[in-house]
Design brief:
globular; mainly alpha; 83% helix; 351 residues
Amino acid sequence: MTELSIAKTHHPVTLWFPGLLLTAAIAAAASWLAQQPTVAAAGLGSLTLAIMLGILVGNSVYTPLASRCDSGVVLAKQKLLRLGIILFGFRITLQQIADVGFSGILIDALTLSSTFLVTCLLGIRLLKLDRDTVWLIGAGSSICGAAAVLATEPVVKAAPSKVAVAIATVVLFGTLAIFIYPLLWPLAHNLFPDLSAAQFGVFTGSTIHEVAQVVAAGHSISPDAENSAVIAKMLRVMMLAPFLLCLSAVLRGKRKASKARQPVTFPWFALLFIAVALFNSLQLLPAMVVATLNELAGLLLAMAMAALGLTTRFGALREAGVKPLLLGALVFGWLIVGGGTINLLVQHFMG
């Protein structure tokens, strides 16, 4: 009887439940906050709020709960994250690519690759930051903010503190973009009179970090800017999977060159993400089902963010110093200046 009780006590579901319940509660609170007008106007999405709340709980009341909740928290941070990324593919269709056109695809691809390269050069060569932190900040700045950082973490296998630093960096400068880009629009229009609001929207979608921040900035400019910004942004999000595959290949090559024994984890969830996006393009599922799957993806990603926050300590963030923030600021400057230049050149030669 005693052995049976011990077996039940150690059943995986029993071990996972407290942590999953806690992350779900934080995710639900973040979702509710994200729907409040004041918070929504600031461009703070549920993913951003989930990690913020997770960090607050993790550094206050979580310590006595850690022994019971850690298993579920780790499950949310790893397995639920991958599942959430896969289901995120239901937000994207190939039809969206056609709406933006080849010029939009080229702008996104050039901005993504150049931003990640600039981040690596500045972070590793100039600021002497560790590779994992630089790559995570590069992924978040190049693609889709916190979600890209979370998706890159299983490939890089970075420490939770480094993931939290990267997310804090991209969230900070992505939030600043919400207020800066609407101010840039009249200036850009005066300098380049032929520049349309829709073209500025493509610039907005190809350079601002988070989807929610793109929507907020585009909405502040004009309806045309908002529509083209969202399409350009979703196209950029779709490039997450190829990016992860390329990053995995680079890591595999580095491991072989150094004769390291540990293999690089192949990001199968990235391939499934692409498969889901392709399937979603066929529009075989009812709109209500797709909407439900999108809500589920948002919940799973928010739970993963909450789990990351719960395992992040302020001490580790303080140890990171000011260099990650300086890197984020430099990359933000590149996104505005370099990303703007890429947009103007592509639109000039292909317009």
